[in-house]
Structure formats: structure tokens, C-alpha cells
Amino acid sequence: MSQRFEVDALLFDLDGTLVDSIGDLALAANAMLDELGRPARSLDQIRRFVGKGIPKLVERCLADATLSDADFAAAVAVFKRHYADTNGRVSKAYPGVPETLAALRAQGLPMACVTNKATAFTEPLLQMTGLAPYFDVVVSGDTLEVKKPHPGMLLHACQRLGVDITRTLMVGDSANDAESARAAGCPVLLMTWGYTEGVPVDTIECDGLLSSANALLQRIAPRAP
Ligand SMILES: O=C(O)COP(=O)(O)O
Ligand SMILES: [Mg+2]
């Protein structure tokens, strides 16, 4: 039987873990590229570009262009303008996610969303997908100076939840989540359906893979009454 984790709280990644957001990200990325007179990117390419936040996504989309710092900053602003419009248009919670979060909530487990997505987009996306009520704390890609794979965001989430990082479980989809959890000192499980920056998910060092949301419930040890 797979190992069960005794936890006081859970930390969840957003893009590629809870919400299939690639459609809206791709719409915004291609609207930006079109506005800048650059060729469109395929959905598969854009899926590989997601994981380290918006500036990195824009940089990867424009990797074949020579840009000054000012041009790059302008491109990020163009992306954000389009993403403010497309965010939530086709994004959906993955099957079983709302039910699984509800079951965890019913067990009294506090939960935080820890995402490299910027705050301006995280909060509306959680609202539009109906997931916002499950999270006691949200730490976004611009909440701190650092992003995943740095452990800071996870440690900050635990501090705000008032729980010990070693008694939490991180649930993510990429090496950014796995590495940040390892560095912070908590176990980590990865969903098999997410965005891995082109790396096969089963090559990422972690404590196990989840191929359905409700499989997570079997990995949490029952809490002492
Ligand atoms: O914004 C990104 O690039 C990825 O966001 P995530 O941390 O929720 O996967
Ligand atoms: Mg992710």
C-alpha cells in the first residue's frame, strides 16, 4: 500500500494541479505575440513554457527575439493585459478536484494555494473555478521576492496557516513544486496531468504520483480524534 502522510495542513499548486488553465494562458500568449508581430506558439509549446511564472512564460515565448529590458517589460505588460481578459474563459478545475478539496475541508484540514501565478490572476481564477472557499491562505508568485522552486513560498504559507512545514503535504505538478517541497522539508505528491516544463513527470523526484484527485484522500492518514 502507498505511504500515508500524517498531516496538519495541505499546500496546493494551482496551474496544472487544481486547474487546467493552459487554454487561457495560450490565448493570452498568442494575443501578445500577435500584437508584437511575432509568430504564434502551439499549445504544446506554451504548455512547456508554464511553471515559473508570467515573466518566464513571456521570456520563453519570445526566446527567438532580441529584446531590450524595456521591450521585455512592455511585452510582460501586454501579456498581462490580454490575460486579464482571457483568465477564466476556458480554465476549469480538473475532474474530482472540488469534491476532493471538500472532503479534506470536512476533515478539518487547513489548506493553502501556493502558485507562481501573479496575485491579480490567482484570486479571480480561484473565484471563477469555485475553489476560493477551500483556501485559508493564498501565496502567489508576486507575494514574495522569491518563487518556487525556492522554498520561501511554502514556508510563508505554513507560517500564515500556523502549522509546522514538516506536518504538511505539498501537492503539485512540476519539478518547481517537488524541489520547493524538498528544500522546505515537507513531502510532495505530483498529479500526472499537469505542466512539467517538458520533463516526464515520472522522472521528477517526489513521494508519489496521483493520477486522480480523489487518490489524494487515500494518501492522508486518518487524524487522531
Ligand atoms: O504561473 C506559472 O507559471 C505556474 O503556476 P503554478 O505555480 O500554479 O503551477
Ligand atoms: Mg503547476
From TrEMBL:
Which pathway does it take part in? Organic acid metabolism; glycolate biosynthesis; glycolate from 2-phosphoglycolate: step 1/1
Q: Name one Pfam family in it.
A: Hydrolase
Tell me if Magnesium is a UniProt keyword of this record.
Answer: yes
| Residues annotated as the enzyme's active site | 13 (nucleophile)
Q: Does the keyword NAD apply?
A: no
Any GO CC annotation of this UniProt entry: cytosol
Q: Which InterPro entries match?
A: HAD-like_hydrolase_sf (IPR050155), HAD-like_sf (IPR036412), HAD-SF_hydro_IA (IPR006439), HAD-SF_hydro_IIIA (IPR006549), HAD_sf (IPR023214), PGP-like_dom2 (IPR023198), PGPase_prok (IPR037512)
Q: Where does Mg(2+) bind?
A: 13, 15, 173
Could you name the domain of life of the organism this protein comes from? Bacteria
Q: Which cofactor does it need?
A: Mg(2+)
Q: What class of enzyme is it?
A: hydrolase
List, in alphabetical order, the Gene Ontology terms for molecular function in this entry: metal ion binding; phosphoglycolate phosphatase activity
Q: Which family does it belong to?
A: Belongs to the HAD-like hydrolase superfamily. CbbY/CbbZ/Gph/YieH family.
Record-given protein name: Phosphoglycolate phosphatase
